[in-house]
Amino acid sequence: MNVRSAQTGPAGDEQRVAVLMANVERLVAERRDADAQRLFAEAAAILPDHPSVLHEQARRVALAGDSEGARAIMERVVGMAPAHLPFWLSLAAILRTMAHRDEELIALDRALALNPTHLVALLQKGAVLDLMNKPRAAAAVYGHALETLAAGTRVSAPIEAHLAHARRRVADNAAQVAALLEARLAGLRADSSGAQRLRFERCMDRVLGRTRIYAPEPTGMLFPYLNHYEFHPREHFPWLEALEAAGDSIREELLGVLSADREGIQPYIAYGEGLPLNQWRELNHSRRWGAYFLWEDGRRLEAHAARCPRTVAALAAAPQVDIPGRGPTAFFSILEPHTKIPPHTGTTNIRLTAHLPLIVPPGCRFRVGGETREWRPGSAWVFDDTIEHEAWNDSDAARAILIFDVWNPQLTPLERDLVRAATVVIAEYNAAEGAAAGEVIR
Predict the structure, then answer these.
(1) Which of 154, 160, 264, 296 has the smallest set of CB atoms within 10 Å of its CB?
(2) In a domain, 188, yes or no
(3) For residue 366, what are the β-bridge partners?
């Protein structure tokens, strides 16, 4: 094909060559070498010293086996266009064939100076460091390369192969560092409990790439300057032992509900029409995740409470959230077999959420942030539900637990009063115009 331009003179020649060389690159990728050669010759006849023309010439010289000649051409090209990153990558590739590792590394660093997050440049740098027998430096660079990838990014098969190698090198390096830490810190760890080392161990998990550190991400009110834990230390909740002691009685009342009042169990997820369901599409208005409420958004369900007096009495010892229209909330949560609750976060960190497991078949798990636990009947915990969490019931039977909200113990009495009053004011303000179409039911 002939590429013609209405412009004449240097500007017109530049434009024609740019178009021609773009087509050459496409044809080379399509393996249409004869067509590519014809357009390349046309471009070279117009501007033989154009950087793109010389770049293609260097490629052809390298394919012919003349690495020194290709290198000389590419050094001229990067001198003419030092801000064009692909030229530095091509020079690095030629230097790779010549086993000039130090010079290749310099060329790649020049590319990364132009774009520090360029995936191919990072992968090439990691590879040359591997060839230089510097696996620790290579792992660090590969780690940077992996960090540039957004979730769900699609790449070509060759790049995916490089990424798989990068992941292996990063994992191998982390394992070596972990083994070294295990040996050097064994004495200190032996003289301390897991609870005492919790923050340090999570820090090391982050350093070694095992998990990220999760932070509160409430969908509503975020109260600042609070210490946040995924699962809070038991010693912050002295009432947990009494709750656990009542576990058998509470379980009996739950079994009574399951046998005599299943109609009282309602879908926990209940979004109105017109709202984006996102991760809740499968569970919206579904009894696969059911709730038998004793209190719902501050309203006591008298018939349910009357059916479960010992549960109500046990809850009375806990500092439940008491905000009109918002709390207390307490319910039996029933998760049907082979059902997953997807990752999500709660509304506010002014409160924490307690679980008392009651019926737990094998294969039931619960993740908060970077920690996954299995429920054990009668063993309660308190967690921050504004940190991403999810649950699984992979068994053939239903899982049932008691869930309720309590005040975050880090709030002072004054802060509780202020939060309570502010929440009521905001709710009244928003309710002044009535419910909006598509309003969340819960």
Answers:
(1) 154
(2) no
(3) 373, 391
* Residue where one domain finishes, among candidates 118, 152, 186: 152
Tell me the per-residue pLDDT of 188-236, one tens digit each, with 9 for 90 and over. 999 888 888 988 999 999 889 888 899 999 999 999 999 999 999 999 9
pTM: 0.77
Say whether both 141 and 255 belong to one domain.
no
Last residue of a domain, one of 132, 152, 172: 152
Which of 49-53, 216-220, 258-262, 273-277 comes out lowest in average pLDDT? Answer: 273-277
HEC-encoded secondary structure of the chain: CCCCCCCCHHHHHHHHHHHHHHHHHHHHHCCCHHHHHHHHHHHHHHCCCCHHHHHHHHHHHHHCCCHHHHHHHHHHHHHHCCCCHHHHHHHHHHHHHCCCHHHHHHHHHHHHHHCCCCHHHHHHHHHHHHHCCCHHHHHHHHHHHHHCCCCCCCCCHHHHHHHHHHHHHHHHHHHHHHHHHHHHHHHHHHCCCCCCCHHHHHHHHHHCCCCCCCCCCCCCCCCCCCCCCCECCHHHCCCHHHHHHCHHHHHHHHHHHHHHCHHHCEECCCECCCCCCHHHCCCCCCCCEEEEEEEECCEECHHHHHHCHHHHHHHCCCCECCECCCECCEEEEEECCCEEEEEECCCCCCEEEEEEEEECCCCEEEEECCEEEECCCCCCEEECCCCCEEEEECCCCCEEEEEEEEECCCCCHHHHHHHHHHHHHHHHHHHCCCCCCCCECC
Question: Is residue 10 over pLDDT 80?
Answer: no
Domains contained in the chain, number: 2
258 within domain boundaries: yes
Structural domain span for residue 103 = 9-152
- At residue 177, φ and ψ (nearest 5 deg) are -65, -40
State the virtual CA torsion across 222, 283, 262, 321 in degrees, nearest 10. Answer: 0
Q: What is the pLDDT of residues 70-125, one digit of tens each?
A: 999 999 999 999 999 999 999 999 999 999 999 999 999 999 999 999 999 999 99
Residue range 150-170: average pLDDT? 92
Indicate if 137 and 240 belong to the same structural domain: no
CA distance 124 to 112: 11
Within this chain, do residues 119 and 245 fall inside the same structural domain, yes or no? no
d(CA 430, CA 436): 10
Average of per-residue pLDDT values in the chain: 92
Integer Cα distance of 146 and 123 in angstroms: 9
